[in-house]
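#lab-general

N.A. 3:47 PM
ok so I finally got the sequence cleaned up, no stray characters, all 413 residues accounted for. can someone with queue access submit it? mine expired

B.Y. 3:52 PM
send it over

N.A. 3:53 PM
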Amino acid sequence: MKRFLLPQMRNEWRSNLWMMIEIAVVAIILFAIFSFYASVIRIKSQNYGYDTNDVVVGQVKMIPKDAWTVDCNPEEMYGRSLESVEMLMAEMRQNPYVELVGVGKNATPYDMSFWNGDLSYTEDSVFYHFTGNGRDVSPDVIRIFRLQSTDGKTTEELAKVIEKGDIIVGEFDHPFIPDQTEAKKFLNKMVVLNNYSSRLYHVGAVSKSLQRNDFEGAWGGSVYIPIIGWSFPDQVIIRVKPGKSHEFLESLADADLTRGMVYFSDIKDISKYSDQVHFGMNTLIRNTAVCAGFMLLVIFLGFLGTFWFRTQQRVPEIAVRKVNGATKGDIFRRLLGEGMILLAVSVVPALVVGYYFLQSDIAPGFVRGRQIVDMFYGALTTVTVLVIMIVCGIYFPARVAMNINPAEALKDQ
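B.Y. 4:20 PM
back already:
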């Protein structure tokens, strides 16, 4: 080996250039993958602002018109149907496994529907506009999901807001419309709902939003509307006692869930809806993990082979240094220093390219548009993994080379 490391690396610039290109390409790929997984971990560990554990969801349906036992006009039918729903809910509350029962329309997470909940008001000649996912709920739905407020109220106080006939606005992570007004600006305002200017609604609270899926974020936010007097429910939502959802569902096996013209059906744990909505993303996460693991193995073997070849070429130089008094530690540190310099020179521009790549339209959809915090942890993980692989790739061939007898290594020189 030569006396100074940098002059030596400069003299071997051709082989070093290809090594840096290899490291840079690997760094960009790992950066994209680790940024994706950083976002998954961040999303899964966040506080969603509601609780879906021990929640069961069913459908509220009407029997076919030709099976009606009475003939009534639409207004009478609506009244009779609401009475039937109340009867079924009252009987459901008598179940020993049940804590709370509520009804709603588009009232649960893990449903990819988006029902227009358009709010607006004008103050001091300024127009404020909010378009969220409209969710028609009874007060107990707020209690069932233990919805959290963002303006200092408790879950019970949020439920009281719905009982009063007021609206709750849920904050958004991503706006549905350009220049969408923040949810907090609607607190205690009288607003127009869905452009029905004949009636104004009072916004009584601001809260978290029920999300359509865990990975989307609160897209557009939510607008919680009292269902009574607004629409007819098509969902029944039930909170059962902790860990008793299976027993509760078994208790309904032979139950008569029909009253009048209404019946409850398709009652199942909300986790079933979650699994269905997240199936594609969970499959992508698993497949990406398998591919990433295989790729890391291939990359490590590639690094190991490359550094093994480079080290074997330097066996005579290593022997000369040993003869001149260099220790194994001195030799290993020199080899490791070369690897770290190659890594540092390669990874910095690679991460810059990776950043712009993830912001571009050519990036695959599942890695595109990561947040800065995700890319920070992605970069940190990428550098850590590359350091480990390069250290291991250098250590094993260096260890073999340093144990060779100098006389044997120099006999053909």
